[in-house]
Structures are given as C-alpha cells and as structure tokens.
Amino acid sequence: MPEKSAGTLATETVASPTIRMPKRPAGTLYRGREGMWSWVLHRITGVAIYFFLLVHILDTSLVRLSPEAYNAVIGAYKTPIMGLGEIGLVAAIGLHALNGLRIILIDFWSVGTKHQRVMFWVVIGLWLVLLAGFIPRQLMHIFGGE
Amino acid sequence: MTTIEAPRTPAAKPQRRRGINWEKWGWMYMRASGVVLVVLIFGHLFVNLVAGEGVKAIDFAFVAGKLADPFWVVWDTLLLWLALIHGANGMRTLVNDYATNPTVRRILLGAILASTVVLLTLGTLVIYTFDPCPAGQPADLLPSFCPVNQ
Ligand code: HEM
C-alpha cells in the first residue's frame, strides 16, 4: 500500500505543529536576562561589602587602643595583595551603589520599569568609567610610580 | 441553606493587619539610606584611598587628624550607623530567603542583631571617646598638633 494516498493528505495538513521548547525560559521579566543578573550581582556585592564592613569597624576601633596597635593592623592594608583587594572592594561597592540607584529609579520613577534594561547598561558603563579612574591611581599608590 | 451571593460580589477583603508596617519602613530605609550612603561612601573612599598618597598615608596620626575635626566625626558616625543597619537589614532579607529551617533562621537573625548592636556601640564609643594625643605614646606616632610635638 502506498504511503501517501489521497486519503492521508488531509490528515497531514492538520497534523499538530511541532512545539519546540524554547532554549531558555522565555516570557518572564527576571529569568536569564539583565534583570536577573543585576539582582544576582547586587546580592553578592551586598554580602561581600557587609562582611568587609564588620572587619573594618573592628580594625578601625584599634585607634582607641594605641597608635602602635592601629599602625600594625593598618599596615596590612598597604601590602600589594591588599592593594589589589581594595580594587575588588571599590569595584563591588561601585556596582552595588550604581545598581542601588537603578533599583530606586525603578521603584519611584514613573517610567523606571520600562527603562530598567537600558539603565542596567548605563550602570555598567558608569562603573567602567569609575574603575578606569580608580585602578591606575591605585596601582600607582601600591606599586609606586608617581 | 446555602446562600448564593449576588453576581459580581467582590471577594472578601483580606484583613489588613493593624499597627506599623515594619517591612514597608525597612524597604523605605534601604532606599533612603542608599541615597545618602552613595555620598558618604564615595567621599570616604576618595579622601582615604584616592587623594594624596592613598592608603599608604593612613596611620594613627592620619585618623587622629580627621577625628579631631567635628565634620569628620559627624560623617563617620552617619557612615557607621547608616551602612551597618543597611547591611544588616539586607542580610536579614537573605536569611529570610534561604534559611528554611526555623531554628537556623532564628539563630542567624539573632546573630545579625547581636553583632549589629555590639558594633554600633563599639564604633560610636570609639568615635566619641577618642583622644588624638594619648599620654605616654611615642611622639613620632602622634599628629603634629599634639603638645608633645610642639
Ligand atoms: C553605596 C550606597 C548603597 C546603595 C545606593 C545601596 C542600595 C541598596 C538597595 C536599593 C538595596 C535593595 C533593597 C531591596 O531590594 O529592598 C540594597 C540591598 C542590599 N544592600 Fe545596599 N546599598 C548601598 C550600600 C551598601 C553597603 C555599604 C552594604 C553593606 C554594608 C550594603 C549591603 C546590602 C545588602 C546585604 C543588601 C540586600 C541584597 C538583597 O536583598 O538581595 N549596601 N542596597
């Protein structure tokens, strides 16, 4: 019996269309795009800065103990390794601060939600400008060369 | 007898909890403190890390010089309170999101609260009981305005 008879032609055209699964979850505001990654970055940087702040309050409190104690501990911040760590800290705070302002605009600016994606890239742009200003200056401070 | 409600009767309004909506004010605090912190933190980072010789210039005499000035006393007090409470409240959000075990959650929230109270007390005491010219300390470690260096 031939595979294609006149009788099966009709069924062929109404055969249910193949539904392909989207490669990534689609149709949600947050998942997988700028909205989600800005949230992830905001969370990670927030936690990192928090733990730095706990340590930083303790080390600064040594000024009340004695000049030697404070100078000894602050000396640790002046090593090249810590100097690079300070770049990471400034990068984390800079991103959290700029994206924090973006969150505030999304919440209070009437068209903030509409522009949330472009504001994310503005945040990234301003952040790169901030780092372009800070990193060379910091490298000069820690490795000398002024 | 079952009563059938008239068509289009609105659903019963959920009972609004009375009293202060703390979650709302916490949410407002994150935003209000955030705006102020942008100024406080970038000013702090600029003066301490970027201006002059950067981190290399920081020592006891540098801090003593700053804390002898009421401007920096107010600045550092605001920075301490606003940043630590903002960070602690943010960590509270994370604990509420991830700690599903009630006991673990209570312990973590308690630890955040306790550390915040201790560090705010410590930090505030340090700022307001600080003596830039402590007696019996090597003169070369003290700021130039101290009597031993005059
Ligand atoms: C530099 C200025 C800052 C701005 C503009 C800012 C802004 C914000 C905003 C708007 C939120 C969101 C709150 C919400 O969604 O309800 C937030 C969350 C948070 N912030 Fe900040 N912040 C700043 C500095 C800091 C500092 C210094 C710390 C640490 C001590 C910190 C730690 C956190 C944490 C842990 C969260 C919670 C993150 C989350 O829920 O996913 N932030 N911040």
UniProtKB/TrEMBL annotation, chain B:
The chain crosses the membrane at residues 26-51, 71-95, 107-130. Pfam families: Sdh_cyt. SUPFAM superfamilies: Fumarate reductase respiratory complex transmembrane subunits. Its main location: membrane. The keyword Iron applies. It is found in: Membrane. Keywords: Heme, Iron, Membrane, Metal-binding, Transmembrane, Transmembrane helix. This is Succinate dehydrogenase hydrophobic membrane anchor subunit. It comes from Antiquaquibacter soli.
